[in-house]
Design a protein that fits this description.
With 797 residues, the protein is mainly beta. The protein contains five helices and 44 strands. The strands form ten sheets. The protein has a 22-stranded antiparallel barrel. Strands 8-13-14-11-12 form a five-stranded mixed β-sheet. The longest helix is centred in the first third of the chain and has 12 residues. The chain is globular.
Length: 797
């Protein structure tokens, strides 16, 4: 990471690219090919660190308006640094063979505001400075995530333009980017947003598992389809959680405890801990993270007599072991585990008392998540080699109260009727790739991706018959498996320092096999299915970027996202909208959807990096939109909704007018239209479900010194999410149109900090999500968590 400051205020820090990339021992007499245009010193040093694969650190240096000299050729490391820094008040010293410290003339003043933090990211599968990339990307460091009190990926929605999430509860939420939504239901279709923990994809056709964001290096959110590098299921974009890796030469530890009270609800508490232990100095280290969170409930169920019924407990941890046997190879093993136990859902029926509902059964959710990964990297003089193998195992259990629907579905009298769903997902993946190193005119990468995925689904709708005995009205047992292979690559050519062209593509092959048995009350309800299908696809990419003046990048791009078609077990007539598809098995198959993205963007920084503005305008053509649906009897199926055309724009701004004040803002607007919608879903002009036309947010943080070694801070975040509809029909239930404000203030001294936070300051009770139970036809409301006030105590060593 290239950062502007010590912790959050300073000059420059680039620690071995902070990506577990092995750094060869060079020494100042080693030579390296360097190509750097004249630019600000901070940017030039970042480029040099990337090209020479060195660690460069600072000592609270601000580079002000200093410009470096252009350099092009092969030099000794000390010669190259001398040329870059010539004429500036900065020098350098070698701390070891591959670590350099930048120094400052002690007589030089250093009081100007520090620049906004610059971060090195790997979302494009190579190390690059985020601000220099010709893509719409939002990056938040671990320090920023901690300072904002963000605990899960869905918490990023107020920080990232165009990012939204549903609000079903922990482990049940779907993430969306750029208002590109397929359904608010947590069904079986592949996700719209690729969600990754380091190199491992952790959510294919299931909701965000809600991994806790502690001890995180950074998060990277790529907006727009990423099919070329990441394959199927990244139509809206990509969210990557980059964890902190084991440190090979020092002990580290962290503990954090928090307690809070919620208006109308029960108290909450959480505890986090981290420990880093070198096992063999500079060769082997272990890093362990653990957490537990108890979220107090705030919804009462009057019929059942349960107060604060929607309490939830989340516990889990991560373990990482890094081995660096030499200067070439680095091998890291990662493990993550998560358990969620939500005792009930968090909606209530419109028209009833706020936070009170009247159901016949509790609706618990259980989620058991496990991921294991092994990543090996090697840094050769001509390329970086990476191979990453992972296994994800996830078990989800859900219950819906179908009591009110039971008489209409079966003709029997009203009685307690649970609909239970169990899913078990197992996924094996491997990606192996080569990425060119150096900063020549040509850059390239090439990779192979392989995956095997199994999923078992069991669902059962039960209730009383005429005699009062429990019977099954519908039960389904389904087993899916899928195998995928893909070749991908891209190349970038920069004929000049101000122009680059990137072209790439991905060829994918996938086969699916579905075995299913469905039973019902009538013989006609019984289904026995054994079907296979196979398909392939190609996802191209083209990006043209120009840098007309320093610190300004303009780009235009065409990118593509896709999801392969598949097989429905029990879908109503009309679910398959393309009746002329010769490969379809009647109404049992749904088509692949493809999203074409045309985009123009600009990135600019000025005032020595103290003001950054990035924006993009895009047009999307999305054909055969896949959407999750649940039939009246509880049968899951996927339909093709039609074709969507979407025009949108987004903007991110960050400013540091003086050292102690940082202001950030983002805004998003889009206008999605569905052409020739599937009449099964809407008979009117269509809209995308849960997709607001507009959202924006602004935050400010002020730091100030206190007595002796104490410092203080205060921050505020305000966000607005526009109105949207629950389904494709514009007359479907409305939600959104709400404002949220959060406050944080604290004191810090050396390794200790104490933070007071107030979430939902105004105690807004707006409807964030108009869904909670598909069997209850009454209008439903899911408010944000009521006003919550708490304290967090953290100690680092």
């Amino acid at each position: 990471m290239l950062r502007s400051g010590k912790s959050r205020r300073g000059g420059l820090c680039l620690c071995a690219l902070l990506l577990c990339v092995p750094v060869a021992a060079k020494g100042q007499d080693a030579t390296v090919a360097v190509h750097i245009a004249e630019k600000p010193v901070a940017d030039a040093l970042a480029d040099f660190a990337l090209q020479a694969q060195l660690s460069i650190s600072d000592s609270d240096i601000d580079f002000h308006e200093a410009q470096s000299h252009a350099i092009d050729g092969t030099y000794r490391l000390d010669e190259a640094l001398t040329k870059i820094l010539d004429g500036t008040p900065y020098g350098f010293e070698f701390l070891d063979a591959s670590t350099i410290r930048i120094t400052l003339d002690p007589h030089e003043p250093d009081s100007a505001p520090m620049p906004i933090e610059n971060v090195i990211v790997t979302a494009t599968k190579r190390e690059a400075i985020a601000q220099a990339l010709p893509y719409s990307i939002a990056v938040h460091t671990g320090q920023e995530i901690e300072a904002a009190g963000i605990h899960s990926p869905s918490g990023l929605t107020s920080e990232v333009a165009g990012m939204t999430a549903t609000n079903l509860g922990p482990g049940e939420n779907k993430l969306f980017i750029r208002g590109l939504t397929d359904s608010v239901l947590p069904g079986l279709s592949e996700s719209m947003v690729g969600l990754y923990l380091d190199e491992t994809r952790i959510a294919d056709d299931a909701p965000d598992p809600d991994l806790r964001l502690i001890d995180i290096e950074r998060t990277e959110v790529m907006r727009g389809p990423q099919g070329t590098l990441y394959g199927a299921g990244s139509l809206g974009g990509l969210v990557r959680i980059i964890t902190r890796k084991p440190v090979l030469d020092s002990y580290e530890s962290m503990m954090s405890a928090s307690a809070s009270v919620t208006e109308y609800g029960a108290p909450s508490g959480e505890f986090d801990a981290m420990m880093n232990v070198p096992l063999i100095d500079d060769t082997l280290a272990l890093r362990a993270v653990g957490y537990i969170q108890r979220s107090g409930g705030y919804v009462d169920d009057a019929r059942i007599g349960k107060k604060d019924s929607n309490a939830a407990t989340t516990s889990g941890g991560r373990l990482a072991l890094t081995l660096k046997p030499d200067d070439i190879w680095t091998v890291t093993a990662n493990f993550a585990i998560l358990h969620i136990r939500a005792q009930d859902s968090q909606y209530y029926i419109q028209g009833s008392q706020t936070f009170v509902r009247d159901t016949y059964l509790r609706e618990p959710h259980a989620d058991n998540f496990f991921a294991a990964a092994m990543t090996a990297r090697a840094a050769f003089h001509w390329a970086q080699f990476t191979t990453a193998t992972s296994y994800v195992d996830r078990r989800l259990n859900d219950r819906y109260d179908a009591t009110l629907a039971w008489p209409d579905l079966t003709g029997f009298a009203l009685g307690k009727s649970p609909f239970n769903v169990k899913r078990h997902i197992r996924a094996f993946t491997n990606e192996t790739r080569l990425v060119s190193t150096g900063m020549g005119r040509w850059q390239w990468l090439a990779g192979l991706y392989l995956s095997h995925r199994d999923e078992d689904l069991l669902s059962n709708l039960t209730g009383p018959n005429a005699a009062g005995a429990q019977i099954s009205a519908r039960n389904e047992k389904r087993a899916d498996n899928a195998d995928e292979a893909a070749l991908f690559g891209e190349a970038t050519y920069a004929p000049t320092d101000w122009l680059s062209v990137t072209a790439g593509g991905r060829v994918s092959f996938i086969s699916r096999h579905v075995l299913a048995n469905v039973g019902g009350l009538a013989p006609a309800d019984n289904i026995h299915l054994d079907l296979k299908n196979a398909t392939h696809g190609f996802a191209p990419k083209l990006v043209v970027a120009v840098t007309p003046v320093p610190n300004t990048t303009l780009y235009t791009q065409y990118t593509q996202g896709y999801r392969f078609g598949g097989i429905n077990v029990d879908a109503p007539a009309g679910a398959v909208f393309d009746k002329d598809d010769k490969s379809a098995h009647g109404d049992t198959s749904f088509d692949s959807d493809v999203l074409h993205n045309y985009e123009i963007g600009a990135k600019w920084s000025g005032f020595n990096g103290r003001l950054i503005a990035n924006g993009a305008v895009y047009f999307t053509d999305w054909k055969n939109v896949q959407t999750d649906q649940i039939a009246a009897n509880g049968g899951y199926f996927i339909a093709n909704a039609g074709t969507v055309h979407d025009l949108g724009a987004e903007l991110d701004i960050a400013a540091r007018p003086w050292n102690d004040l940082t202001i950030r803002g983002n805004a998003f607007w889009n206008n999605a239209e569905i052409n020739h919608p599937n009449p099964l879903l809407t008979s009117n002009e269509g809209v995308l479900p849960g997709a607001p036309k507009m959202s924006f947010a602004i935050s400010a943080r002020y730091d100030f010194p206190l007595a002796q070694d104490w410092d203080g801070f205060a921050s505020v975040t305000y966000s607005y999410v526009g109105k949207s509809h629950l389904g494709f029909d514009q007359n479907s239930a409305a939600n959104g149109g709400y404002h949220l404000t959060n406050l944080r203030m604290g004191i810090m001294r050396q390794s200790w900090s104490l933070t007071l936070f107030v979430d939902n300051v105004t105690d807004n009770k707006a409807n964030t999500f108009a869904f909670g139970n598909p069997f209850n036809q009454n209008s439903q409301t899911t408010p944000p968590r009521p006003r919550t006030i708490g304290l967090t105590l953290t100690a680092n060593q």
